[in-house]
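Sat 14:20. Reprocessing the chain from the morning session after the first attempt stalled halfway. Input below, unchanged.
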Amino acid sequence: MFRLPFLRKSTHGHSRNGDGSDPDALISLRGVTKSYATPAGEFQALKGVDLHVARGEFVAVIGKSGSGKSTLSNMITGIDRPTMGEVVVAGTPVHKLREGQIAEWRGRNVGVVFQFFQLLPTLTVLENILLPMDFCNMFSTRERKDRALHLLEAVEMVDHAGKLPTALSGGQQQRVAIARALANDPAIVAADEPTGNLDSRTADAVFHLFENLVGEGKTILMVTHDEDMARRVTRTVTIADGQIASDTGSDRARVVNAATYGLPHQAPAQHTVAVFSGAARLSEGAHA
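Finished this time. Tokens:
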């Protein structure tokens, strides 16, 4: 069993979001449309999407290539902006933030895991984990290094802390990317095809890490082509032609106790919480 200081399970009460929206909804998209100008004319990647995600949900977003699922994820993380509509995350109207504001907001509140890892090749593994904390001025200098090492230990990569990403396998780089996504203890982890470049054993181990994060109070939004993995999450949203074609969470009550989970960022708690009980499985697929 791995135990990781600094990764908190919030116990703050149930409260109404600042914009008056449903307090159960950590993520709310209302009438979101995203259009792009192309040589062939305007292309609508999203068409009036409404989506609400409660705290502690594990949501898979599936759909064919070009369906709009990655665009939907980018709306939530603030990587892209809607042409029309509203994106509210824990009471913050993300669509209204300026560029400088949105980068810091994302750094503090959303951990992003990419299909191709996006580790900086000239920085060591440890430095890649430290970077989000440095950028957002989170924690003291000593706490940052301790936290980074604990995160790497949790994903069984601490022995590689001094290596460059190019010296790691794909599975190892994805573990580092997950640790980096958790650097600032975000409430939300958004993963875009996180297992797309991994073998089945390592992909399964990454999925177990996400399951354990949900167990510790995180909210996971995972974009995936893998229908087998999509069937294992608590909720599946299918995107087709820029619209929600189906949502397994739309007709049932959420199995989430909203009062258990807090806001996206608080000061680091002093207690220790067990996480990543499935991390050992990653060792078996470490050379994916």
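The radius of gyration is 18 Å.
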